DNA sequence: GTCGCAAGTTAGTCACTTCTAACCTGGTGA
DNA sequence: TCACCAGGTTAGAAGTGACTAACTTGCGAC
């Protein structure tokens, strides 16, 4: 199973919520992403069955190693791309939205080059 | 009807093919995009019915003003993003592929800022 | 003339990602 | 204790964007 863009977003959101509120349940993801409960329920089922997350009896969600790897990759892209766009003069909100879409479609190589360019611009 | 990402790609391809080979038919788009004939046939029907292209009796395709506007916008993004990524050290092939995905999801504002940054880097 | 091929279309299907409607379940307050 | 509510699930549907199989059509070679 190839990981899909939507799955990347869910995993990233789980990571962000874990950092922000600690224990994460499906309903927290519902509130964060503004999707319906069934959408999240279905998505979590897919992520569970494909080994990206674990859910305990109470519904608390943790990322597996496999899930964490993806979540961290996407989240790093999110942060770097957002900061980079802001540094070019883009409004924070727009920068975040664009980062959220670009993070899923950019190649590792292009991302690394943008990251490098951004870091260098910071050191000047 | 909100224009979809796939429609943007078809319109851009029509513009590129027009510049490269002159008269464009569905089969030329099939060969360029590596989609099946029915996929292109169906897509052209949608574009036709929504006023983005015209087809004459022989199947030759032209962009309407509405279609041309989109095609040119996407194509400009494609060129600028590709050149920009190349200028950061990304291989041409990868740069083109990334540009082709980013061009559909980036906001006008972020694109303009990247374009500006790229132009400025060229003048140094 | 007719055979065959190139171009195009129609019909049916599938995966992905979301939705609404309706239901289940377990804990808590009165 | 029991009724309700928060959290979660199942079932069915919809939109997007692709596919294969099978058909039509028109033109050119022989």
Automatic annotation (TrEMBL), chains A, B:
Domain HTH dtxR-type: 1-64
Cross-referenced Pfam families: Fe_dep_repr_C (PF02742), Fe_dep_repress (PF01325)
Gene Ontology MF: a single term: DNA-binding transcription factor activity
Protein's UniProt keywords contain DNA-binding: yes
Keywords on record: DNA-binding, Transcription, Transcription regulation
Cross-referenced InterPro entries: DtxR_MntR_Metal-Reg (IPR050536), Fe_dep_repressor (IPR001367), Fe_dep_repressor_sf (IPR036421), HTH_DTXR (IPR022687), Iron_dep_repressor (IPR022689), WH-like_DNA-bd_sf (IPR036388), WH_DNA-bd_sf (IPR036390)
Keyword Transcription tagged: yes
Family membership: Belongs to the DtxR/MntR family.
Protein name per Swiss-Prot or TrEMBL: Metal-dependent transcriptional regulator
Species in which this protein is naturally found: Acetivibrio mesophilus
Lineage of the species this protein comes from: Bacteria, Bacillati, Bacillota, Clostridia, Eubacteriales
